[in-house]
Amino acid sequence: MTSSAENKAIVLEAFDTLFNKRDYAKAETFWSDRYIQHSAHIEPGREGLFNLVRAAPASLRYENQLILAEGDRLMLHGRFSGRGGASNWVAADIVRMENGKLAEHWDVLQDEAPKEESKSGLPMFGTTFPPSNELRVLTFDEARKIVAPLYDALNEPAKKDVASLLAQAANPDYESYHTNEEFLTRDQLAEVFMGMGVTTPDLHWEVKDILVIGDRVIVRGEATGTPAAEFWGAKPTGKSFKTMAIDIFTVQNGKLARGYHVENWMTALEQIKV
Questions:
Q1: pLDDT tens-digit map of 197-232
Q2: Which three-class secondary structure state does DSSP give residue 257?
Q3: How far apart (Å, rounded) are the C-alpha atoms in residues 26 and 50?
Q4: Pairwise CA distance, residues 32 & 101, whole Å
Q5: Nearest to 151 by CA among 241, 230, 232, 247
Q6: Is 183 a domain residue?
Q7: Beta 31-37 vs 101-111: how paired, if at all?
Q8: Of the residues 130, 164, 199, which one is the last residue of a structural domain?
C-alpha cells in the first residue's frame, strides 16, 4: 500500500503528465484501466478523460496550489488555464487511489474571476489575480477586426503594403503553418502574398464565415482570380478559379500568434485547365 506522501507525488506527476505534457502512453501508467469518472464534463473511464484532453487546445495548463491526503483519498486545489473557454477553471479534484493508481475521481469547478469581479477582493487561486485579458472570451467583432488586415493583404496583394497589413494583424513572431510541423515567419508570409499578387493580379479573398472558440478563430474563405503567370506549375489559360480555404488562428495579446491553413488549390488547377 502506498503512503500519503507517495500518493501525493503520484497524483501530481499524473496531472502534469496528462494535462501539461500530453504524454498519453505514460499517463496510462498512472490511471487505472478501471478508472471511474464522476465529472459532469467528462465521458466515462480513462479514455473519456484522455479524449477530453486530446480535444483541448494546446495551450491547456494545469497548476496545483495545494494537495491533501488521507488514506487512499486525495484532494487537489488547482487551476486549468488556456482551455479555450470563457475563463480559467479553479478546481477541487478528489481522487481515490488503488494499488498506486488513480482509480476514481470527483471534481468541483468554478470560473476564475478577475479582480474587478471579486466581491471578496481576494484571488481564487494563488496570491495574485491573473490579467483580466487572460479570462476574457474573444468576441466575434474582436476576431473579425484582428483578422481583417490579413485578408485585406490577400486582395490584389501587388497593390498593397502587405508587410504593414500583416504587422497590424499578427505578432512579430507569428508562425503560419502549411503542414503540421512547417511554418513561415511573418516576413516570409508577406513575400508569399506579394508573389501571389504577381501571379494572380486580380486575386480576391472573401471571408465567408468566422467561428470563435476561446482564443481560436476559424475562418472559411473563398479565393478567386485569373492567373496571369505560372500558377502552381500550370501555365495561364485566361480562365479563372474559385476555391475554398480554411484558416485556424490562435490569438495572443490581441494579435494572431499562429495559424494553420488549408487551400483547395487542386480544384483551382482543374478550373483553369484548357
A1: 999 999 999 999 999 987 899 999 999 999 999 998
A2: strand
A3: 12
A4: 6
A5: 247
A6: yes
A7: parallel
A8: 130
Residues 152 and 262 in one domain: yes
Residue 232 shares a structural domain with residue 179 = yes
Are 183 and 104 contained in the same domain? no
For residue 84, what are the domain limits?
A: 4-130
CATH number at 77 reads 3.10.450.50
Closest CA to 215 of 174, 260, 253: 253
Q: Is 223 among the domain residues?
A: yes
Q: 251 and 161, same structural domain?
A: yes
Q: Is 232 helix (H, G, I), strand (E, B) or coil?
A: coil
124 and 146 co-located in one domain: no
Q: Torsion over CA of 173, 177, 181 and 185, rounded to 10 degrees?
A: -30
135 falls within a domain = no
Buried b (16+ CB within 10 A) or exposed e, 109-132: eeebbbeeeeeeeebbbeeebbee
CA atoms of 4 and 67, how far apart (whole Å): 10
Neighbours of 18 (CB within 10 A): 22
Q: How many domains does the chain have?
A: 2
How much is the pTM? Answer: 0.54
- Per residue in 153-175, pLDDT (tens digit) is 999 999 999 999 999 999 999 99
Which DSSP symbol is given to 117? Answer: G
Contact 104, 38 (CB under 8 A): yes
Residue 194, all three cell numbers: 506579394
Q: Give the chain's largest Cα–Cα span.
A: 77
Does residue 43 sit within a domain?
A: yes
Q: Which of 130, 157, 184 is the last residue of a domain?
A: 130
Q: How far is residue 231's CA from residue 273's CA, in Å, rounded to a whole number?
A: 11
- Residue-wise pLDDT tens digits, 53-71: 998 877 789 999 999 999 9
Cell numbers linked to 255:
494579435
Q: In this structure, how many other beta carbons lie within 10 angstroms of the beta carbon of residue 239? A: 11
